[in-house]
């Protein structure tokens, strides 16, 4: 009698599937791919509520796009294979992200999981998939926080998880190049919290700043929510900071930016990751949002098209605005492209009943999506890859209150520069 395989005292679904497949093969009932009657189950974890909810504003639109484009089925080797997407809310909480990922794996028995939006989502979900031997594809987290927050070894990597987005080196290079376009004393104020992004930035960036001749004023790690940033603002003023490099979500940036105005702290350039990528998060500031800078992961000017709908980046953004009544923002391209990646992999998998076969297909992805080329063999770490990343600045808009213009293309040379960075005005 075959024992039920276990991992760490838990039911090992991967081992069960392999054992079951072997048993079927022995009886002559095995099929070369997925049985037509079974539906592929895709788990999806996103922060739909909480401070990171801006990252999920495109999810419903993209899910509707997928349904319209595919009818809920994938054409695999001439057969119509149905798929189902099980969406779960992480509530912007890493513990909750881990819980719902576990439920999707153990209770819903999904075949794979996709997730996005900061280390607070992608790290716990990826870890849960790694533990249970379930293929996982994630994006929208800088690669270093994603990898090192999980204890990753660059020489080994992970077996069951794939990730694509910009790297910290790309982001820092782009932002510092934009900082360099304006005249300043090169004194940077850091707003790096006690979380995956903040800790990674605090470890990696000071040596880089020093090597490029930038000074650093760092008030230290802090837990969020933080009721007041007055102490940080006071330190920045005392240190004559003229450039802000932060990574805090919209509620935190609102507190900081309002207290900066109260203390008449007027830096020449400000970057706040997790906030400045979203026009809806910046609109409440009115003219005080004009001039904020950001790395640009994706925009309508990107010269790529979807492998699912055939839409160019601009056509995708235009459709989103027409359907939702909201302005496009960067995560739209990544919400769409993650389905390009997994659908491509599922179509190439040799055996859809074998998680290892699906994982192998993901590992060998070589696909140009609406966000750009995705090839997990290119690194910088095993089963990861970087995507083109430009730099931009928010300016007074025409159709919407704010428009984003491209100011740097250091790591996205195919994206055209539209103007030079201008210092903030007060």
From TrEMBL:
Residue ranges of domain Leucine-binding protein in the record: 39-378
Record has Signal as a keyword: yes
InterPro entries, sorted: BCAA_transport, Leu-bd, Peripla_BP_I, TAT_signal
Domain of life: Bacteria
PROSITE patterns: TAT (PS51318)
Sorted UniProt keywords: Amino-acid transport, Signal, Transport
PANTHER family: LEUCINE-SPECIFIC-BINDING PROTEIN, PERIPLASMIC BINDING PROTEIN OF ABC TRANSPORTER FOR NATURAL AMINO ACIDS
Protein family according to the UniProt entry: Belongs to the leucine-binding protein family.
Protein name: ABC transporter substrate-binding protein
